[in-house]
Task: inverse folding
């Protein structure tokens, strides 16, 4: 709720350029994220079966040559549903992260450059929004407008705005306090130009990290929403909904829950690892050493 | 110190006010007149007018807001437009269930995260440290409700050790309460401990590089003693920040977990109300959840002031 | 007396295959005071840390170090044995006392801890009582109050006194000091050095004093080790090494540190011109040494380099009755917010062509003054006229003219260049000002001309700041400041973050450029010697006020204000220190 000195003392913007070596987290994260992307892309050109095709003759089957991952309680092919489900995961992630970046970043930079009342109001606003987690907002939206992909994306995006605003503001404050910005101001550079030439390029690293972490949170939130039946409505398959549909079969046919569970975990872990890897690459703390 | 606490209190009040305004506009103003919604599609204007009078929605919006807001302060949320029952007693009943879940889960998460996170930091160059970090990375990726599903499947349905769902109040029968509370609390705490562990680890790692730890070692303290005596309290400050943020996540996580374990808490009440489009109930429950989050933030801020003499003295 | 306290043989430290410190050998007698001199990266801190057994795990250490009364090799002994030694027989004082003290623990408890740890005192109350005595012995005013304070409530000097009290609490045989006064103000530095000297002499403690500052070593030590790139290049008694250096590096270091010796052009000696440098003679009075160092002229740049003196130009900067008040966050619920006056009724005039030094310690308001002059901050009261532009109350667009006339060079060579911009874009930035209409080719030609004139290769333009050393980065800053041909150059501690040998080069460059371009120079520094070398007029600031202003020579030789006198007396000067040996 309030400014903490510990947050402000630590540099958030790297003061030296990133190291160029590949690290494990980055590699593993890229592979997992790539896997999810590939899954979604494949689903556009090929799925073994129609993911919404009900076939009562092949209900609750284990993996076979025909149905590689088995079938669900309505005889739908699980592999096809997992493939197509990746689309919703990525769509919700991309749109909600996009909303958060586009609203949060300019607000944060504005607050950090203008200071004073602008900063106070923006940051208090962010604090208030923080008391409404993505899921809570989504539930409210669902109550008003009914469950839909759009209200899920809007809710998750809106709830992620404070994160970006805070990160952008902290970074902007640090950049604005630097002597190179003083030098730019002494050279009569206009605020917009300073924002474009100095602030944004120096924020890029931490914003990319924030994107990756927020994406992971968005995947989690979407899955939870679909599980509650407040996300994308049927028949479009989504991983969270597949978990919900499996609820009655946990004891008898756990495979129905395992596949979407694994898919969600892979996606979340991928984006988290990617974020960690990028942080190792960009984080000012890593390069810190004493003379 | 008092100034700071007063500031925090003022900030809490303002935040709470703005939050009530936001919730009111979102839930009450945007969707339109509840009387129209409740009356159904083929209602005559007379029926709507009568309902509006009954609900009190025929008055101006500021008046309605004030009614609702002053009601909250008195602990009275009003009567549901859909079920026509008093909301407050229900909320009071359910909030206890949810709070038990959340507080127990946070305690369990801290009990797991603090020692393991510290260990992971101390041994960050060794295999054991990397192993702990790896497990926490995995733990973060498994959402709470998924962990819940796994626990139900394995512990309840396969092994039959604990009941798969349901709830008993601790006052009624404590043994049964314990058996029913273990799985949901574990599911909630699992992810939280993984997240907190990472923060504990990085906070302890930061502290281990601090000059004052080197000073402590130069005084002749062993690495462990130096860390325990000088490091942990310093590391607690950033971890506290995260804990307050994570409480909000835990509260909303409990909503989903209640669905998995069929527990009659605020979450179930909220979801049922959403299903019935019972907007006033949704509005009330949301406000309770937000208020709890804000209260916890306030408490953490006060805790800061006690923990850090720099804040206590300055500002 | 000639009992060996410490014997170091063959000490080497390496990180993987990279050798950081190689074959260090020296021995120390009981109660001896040895200075370990080196620039950044020379391995001097590593050497000291290794004697304490506190090197980071990833570094490998080899060799042999023996302490009197301890039969193990300090470099190889198990941590358990070293623990008994640390804080008891060997202790260390670090550079930055703020971070070296635990921020969440009361100062008294931190001092008491070292005694309790080694069982010198078993009772907590007795330890607390003893720690108050110790705080009194390091001359902290009101030691009982200080013992209950947290580190952030003490001043920098007081914190370092606490560190010293802590280090000496158990009467160690050996005290390691790692640049203990580098982070402190001049007057405080003097006091802390005196305290260390006094305490060490009183107790017969052996002292290994690490520093980059030759004057400090001359003040503190009787013997010196000169470290360069991990190797000892020269060691011996202070007077011998400083007056008859045998190694070229020592000679260069001495030449560059000696701001009173100049070559025939009135410039400081640098590594490349050190051959012509005549080291001071120990014990000889400072004045004589000065006269024989350069020419017969008094080797002040202002006088020696421009004998024609400055024709009294027009007033270029007029500051009258300027105050700047900051508001701190409120500490009481009611009543006004506390006010902190950073500047309090400052007035002075700078004529064109003058070189004005602004001297003051931290918190004196000198940086605030600079920012106001540069139009980066606004005065709360008063008027600031810079080259015809009124700064007070000016909007950004009113300041365009000011910005063409006045440019700044900042202190931190890391922080003053945007890490994500190429050097050519950094230097070209002031050319984007409205009214300067250059096309891309003209701009790049201007930039490369500028880079050349500050002594950088022309291929520097395409590179990023992190590819340059500190001194080179400061040259880039200077290029940026001068690219638009301003009339006034403001330099804010431009050499404070640089190594001694680089410092001389940058100061010479500044002097050259000021002369060539007929600039008016405002030079802010805490270092009196640097100001004395470069400036012909000086303003002395304290607590937001000007306590004294006048000609450099007059102020340094005959200060009128007691604070100026204290400042002059406190600042260590290599020749004076040597004269005293």
Result:
């Amino acid at each position: 709720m309030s400014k903490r000195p510990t947050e402000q003392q630590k540099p958030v913007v790297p003061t030296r350029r990133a190291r160029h070596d590949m690290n494990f987290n980055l590699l593993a994260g890229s592979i997992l994220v790539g896997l999810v992307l590939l899954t979604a892309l494949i689903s556009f050109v090929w799925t073994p079966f129609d993911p919404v095709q009900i076939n009562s003759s092949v209900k609750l089957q284990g993996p076979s040559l025909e149905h590689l991952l088995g079938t669900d309680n309505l005889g739908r092919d699980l592999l096809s549903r997992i493939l197509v489900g990746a689309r919703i995961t990525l769509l919700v992630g991309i749109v909600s992260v996009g909303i958060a970046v586009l609203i949060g970043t300019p607000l944060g930079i504005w607050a950090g450059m203008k200071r004073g009342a602008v900063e106070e109001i923006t940051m208090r606003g962010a604090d208030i929004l923080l008391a409404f987690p993505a899921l809570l907002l989504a539930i409210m939206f669902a109550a008003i407008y009914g469950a839909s992909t759009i209200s899920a994306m809007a809710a998750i995006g809106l709830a992620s705005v404070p994160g970006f605003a805070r990160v952008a503001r902290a970074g902007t404050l640090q950049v604005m306090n630097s002597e190179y910005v003083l030098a730019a101001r002494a050279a009569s550079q206009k605020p917009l130009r300073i924002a474009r030439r100095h602030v944004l390029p120096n924020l890029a690293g931490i914003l990319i990290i924030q994107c990756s972490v927020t994406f992971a949170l968005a995947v989690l939130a979407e899955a939870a929403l679909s599980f509650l039946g407040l996300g994308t409505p049927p028949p479009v398959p989504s991983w969270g909904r597949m978990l919900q549909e499996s609820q009655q079969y946990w004891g008898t046919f756990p495979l129905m829950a395992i596949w979407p569970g694994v898919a969600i975990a892979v996606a979340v872990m991928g984006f988290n690892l990617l974020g960690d890897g990028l942080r190792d690459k960009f984080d000012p703390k890593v390069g810190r050493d004493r003379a | 110190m008092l100034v700071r606490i007063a500031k925090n209190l003022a900030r809490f009040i303002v935040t709470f006010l703005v939050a009530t305004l936001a919730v009111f506009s979102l839930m009450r103003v945007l969707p339109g007149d509840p009387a129209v919604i409740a009356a159904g599609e083929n209602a005559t204007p007379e029926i709507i007018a009568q309902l509006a009078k009954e609900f009190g929605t025929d008055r101006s919006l500021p008046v309605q807001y004030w009614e609702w807001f002053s009601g909250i302060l008195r602990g009275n949320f009003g009567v549901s437009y859909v079920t026509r029952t008093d909301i407050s007693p229900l909320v009071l009943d359910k909030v206890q269930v949810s709070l038990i879940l959340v507080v127990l889960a946070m305690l369990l998460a801290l009990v797991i995260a603090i020692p393991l996170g510290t260990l992971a930091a101390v041994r960050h160059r060794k295999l054991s440290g990397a192993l702990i970090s790896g497990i926490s990375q995995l733990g973060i990726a498994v959402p709470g409700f998924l962990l819940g599903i796994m626990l139900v499947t394995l512990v309840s349905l396969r092994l039959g050790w604990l009941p798969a769902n349901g709830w008993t109040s601790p006052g009624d029968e404590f043994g049964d309460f314990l058996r029913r509370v273990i799985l949901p609390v574990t599911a909630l705490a699992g992810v939280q401990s993984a997240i907190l562990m990472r923060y504990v680890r990085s906070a302890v790692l930061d502290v281990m590089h601090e000059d004052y730890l080197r000073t402590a070692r130069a005084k002749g303290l062993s690495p462990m003693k130096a860390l325990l005596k000088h490091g942990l309290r310093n590391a607690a400050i950033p971890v506290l920040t995260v804990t307050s943020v994570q409480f909000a996540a835990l509260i909303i996580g409990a909503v989903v977990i209640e669905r998995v374990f069929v527990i009659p808490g605020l979450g179930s009440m909220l979801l049922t109300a959403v299903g019935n489009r019972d907007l006033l109930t949704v509005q009330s429950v949301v406000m309770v959840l937000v208020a709890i989050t804000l209260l916890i933030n306030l408490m953490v801020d006060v805790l800061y002031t006690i923990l850090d003499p720099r804040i206590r003295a300055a500002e | 007396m000639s009992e060996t306290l410490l014997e170091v043989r063959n000490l080497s430290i390496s990180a993987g295959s990279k050798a950081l410190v190689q074959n260090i050998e020296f021995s120390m007698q009981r109660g001896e005071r040895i200075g370990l001199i080196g620039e950044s990266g020379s391995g001097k801190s590593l050497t000291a840390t290794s004697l304490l057994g506190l090197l980071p795990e990833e570094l490998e250490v080899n060799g042999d170090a023996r302490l009197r009364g301890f039969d193990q090799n300090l470099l190889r002994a198990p941590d358990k044995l070293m623990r008994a030694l640390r804080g008891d027989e060997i202790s260390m004082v670090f550079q930055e006392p703020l971070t070296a003290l635990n921020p969440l623990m009361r100062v008294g408890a931190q001092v008491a801890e070292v005694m309790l740890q080694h069982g010198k005192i078993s009772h907590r109350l007795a330890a607390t009582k003893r720690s108050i005595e110790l705080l009194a012995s390091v001359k902290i005013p009101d030691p009982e109050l200080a013992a209950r304070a947290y580190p952030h409530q003490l001043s920098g000097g007081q914190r370092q006194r606490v560190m010293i009290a802590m280090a000496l609490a158990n009467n160690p045989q050996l005290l390691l000091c790692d640049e203990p006064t580098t982070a402190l103000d001049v007057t405080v530095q003097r006091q802390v050095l005196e305290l260390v000297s006094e305490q060490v002499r009183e107790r017969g403690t052996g002292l290994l004093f690490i520093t980059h500052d030759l004057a400090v070593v001359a003040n503190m030590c009787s013997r010196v080790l000169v470290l360069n790139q991990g190797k000892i290049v020269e060691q011996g008694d202070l007077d011998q090494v400083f007056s008859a250096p045998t190694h070229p590096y020592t000679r260069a270091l001495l030449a560059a540190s000696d701001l009173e010796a100049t070559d025939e052009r009135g410039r400081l000696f640098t590594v490349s011109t050190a051959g012509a440098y005549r080291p001071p003679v120990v014990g000889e009075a400072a004045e004589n040494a000065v006269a024989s160092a350069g020419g017969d002229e008094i080797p002040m740049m202002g006088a020696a380099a421009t004998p024609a003196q400055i024709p009294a130009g027009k007033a270029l900067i007029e500051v009258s009755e300027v105050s700047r008040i900051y508001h701190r966050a409120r500490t009481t619920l009611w009543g006004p917010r506390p006010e902190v006056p950073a500047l309090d009724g400052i007035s002075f005039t700078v004529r064109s062509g003058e070189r004005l030094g602004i001297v003051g310690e931290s918190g004196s308001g000198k940086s605030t003054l600079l920012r106001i002059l540069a139009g980066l901050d606004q005065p709360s009261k008063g008027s600031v006229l810079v080259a015809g532009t009124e700064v007070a109350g000016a909007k950004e667009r009113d300041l365009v003219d000011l910005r063409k006339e006045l440019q700044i060079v900042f202190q931190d060579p890391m922080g003053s260049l945007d890490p994500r911009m190429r050097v050519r874009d950094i230097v070209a930035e002031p050319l984007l000002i409205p009214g300067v209409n250059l096309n891309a080719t003209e701009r790049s030609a201007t930039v490369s001309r500028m880079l050349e004139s500050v002594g950088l290769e022309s291929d520097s333009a395409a590179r990023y700041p992190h590819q340059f050393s500190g001194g080179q980065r400061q040259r880039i800053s200077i290029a940026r400041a001068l690219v638009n041909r301003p009339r006034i150059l403001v330099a804010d501690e431009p050499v404070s973050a640089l190594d001694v040998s680089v410092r001389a080069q940058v100061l010479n460059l500044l002097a050259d450029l000021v002369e060539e371009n007929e600039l008016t120079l405002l030079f802010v520094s805490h270092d009196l010697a640097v100001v004395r070398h470069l400036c012909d007029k000086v303003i002395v600031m304290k607590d937001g006020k000007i306590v004294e202003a006048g000609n450099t020579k007059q102020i340094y030789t005959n200060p009128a204000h007691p604070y100026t006198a204290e400042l002059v007396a406190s600042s260590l000067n290599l020749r004076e220190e040597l004269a005293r040996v």
Notes: The interface with chain B takes residues 52, 54, 57, 79-80, 83-88, 91-92, 94, 96, 99-105, 113-114, 117-118, 150, 152-153, 163, 166, 329-333 of chain C (CB under 8 Å). The CA atoms of residues 83 and 101 of chain C lie 19 Å apart.
